Amino acid sequence: MIRNILSAAISALILCAYGCNQPETDNDMCDKSAMQPDGIVRLSKIKVHPEYLEEYLRYAVEVGTTSLETEPGVLTMYAVADKEDPCNITILETYASAEAYRSHIASEHFQKYKQGTLHMVDSLVLDDVTPLNPDNRIINFIDRK
Amino acid sequence: MIRNILSAAISALILCAYGCNQPETDNDMCDKSAMQPDGIVRLSKIKVHPEYLEEYLRYAVEVGTTSLETEPGVLTMYAVADKEDPCNITILETYASAEAYRSHIASEHFQKYKQGTLHMVDSLVLDDVTPLNPDNRIINFIDRK
Q1: Hey, is the C-beta of B36 within 8 angstroms of any chain A C-beta?
Q2: With an 8 Å Cβ cutoff, are A10 and B6 in contact?
Q3: What per-residue confidence (pLDDT) applies to A26?
Q4: How far apart are CA B116 and CA B9, in angstroms?
Q5: Which chain A residues are within 8 Å of B82, Cβ to Cβ?
Q6: Could you name the CATH architecture of A33-128?
Q7: B33-129 has which CATH code?
Q8: Count of CB contacts below 8 A, A vs B?
Q9: Searching chain B, which residue's CA lies closest to the CA of residue A77?
Q10: CB distance from A125 to chain B under 8 Å?
Q11: How far apart are CA B74 and CA B96, in angstroms?
């Protein structure tokens, strides 16, 4: 039963990811934009000062969740920490267009994260990347079950 | 119409990703296993000798596609190249379990890639990682349209 509900919610979400409007689902994800030629795929590499790690993670999870759930042009926001050194964070970010990226960095939730964590971040590298196989697709969502 | 077919195929795929068996779809993706406690999320970082880059990419796309389409325990295999230096490749790999990983590296397609590209690879770093938010989910598939 739970699986059926979850599947229905995700199926509707997937439909949204392909650009059509759908009724609201149990999932809090917004409709998503289609990837445009000026879309961005990026690996953001962040080194956090160890004394702020716990606090930083709260900010990072919050901004990632809000961005993914509420911004049509934020297609992925998947953040991971190295097991060997959890202060090394990598985020796979995908923006549907350059405009979607500008909208993201202007958003209240991103500015809260950015200003709130400036003193916690030791280094930040933004590596824009190209998927090797254009047919290799990712759908990224928050599963609130 | 195409969108509907694609959506139906992907919806079926999503159902598969949550562990149930589904009829075949237009998509060539196999049923997927559920993530287990000993599952692995990894960033593999590969530096390729420039003179072999083109040939390496063919191997990498082939093994990624085959792994994702045919291995139930390979949940993501998303490879990207740095725009600034395309010889720097990063692959987001997710294995449903330690056994799924062992099965992957024992597979014929992986061994073809591994043995075929040994002389092309300058360095290889396997960084096991932990997603910051356990509710942040990725579904990865090959879209053959």
Answers
A1: no
A2: no
A3: 52
A4: 34
A5: 127-129
A6: 2-Layer Sandwich (3.30)
A7: 3.30.70.100
A8: 150
A9: B136
A10: no
A11: 6
Spatial distance between the Cα atoms of B79 and A136, rounded to a whole number of angstroms: 9
Residue boundaries of the structural domains of chain A: 33-128
Tens digits of per-residue pLDDT, B44-87?
999 999 999 999 999 999 999 999 999 999 999 999 999 999 99
H or E segment to which residue B44 belongs:
strand B40-48
For residue A87, give Cα distances in angstroms to A47, A56, A124: 6, 10, 12
The ipTM, to two decimals, is 0.84
Nearest to A138 among B10, B43, B140 (CB): B140
User: Per-residue pLDDT tens for A2-50?
Assistant: 344 344 444 444 444 443 333 344 568 999 999 999 999 999 999 999 9
Q: Could you tell me if A139 lies within 8 Å of chain B, comparing CB atoms?
A: yes
Residues B86 and B46 sit within 8 Å (Cβ to Cβ): no
Is the pLDDT reported for residue B24 higher than 60? no
- Residue B81 has φ and ψ, to the nearest 5°, of -115, 140
Residue range A76-126, pLDDT digits in tens? 999 999 999 999 999 999 999 999 999 999 999 999 999 999 999 999 999
Q: Which residues numbered 53-92 in B keep a CB inside 8 Å of some CB on A? A: 57, 60-61, 64-65, 68, 76-84, 86, 89-90, 92
pLDDT, residue A10, reads: 47
Instruction: Work out the minimum CA distance from B34 to partner chain A, whole angstroms.
Output: 12
- pLDDT confidence of residue B19: 37
Distance from CA of A3 to the nearest CA of B (A): 8
> Which of A71, A74, A107 is CA-nearest to residue A91?
A74
Q: Which of B65, B136, B137 sits opposite A133 (nearest CB)?
A: B65
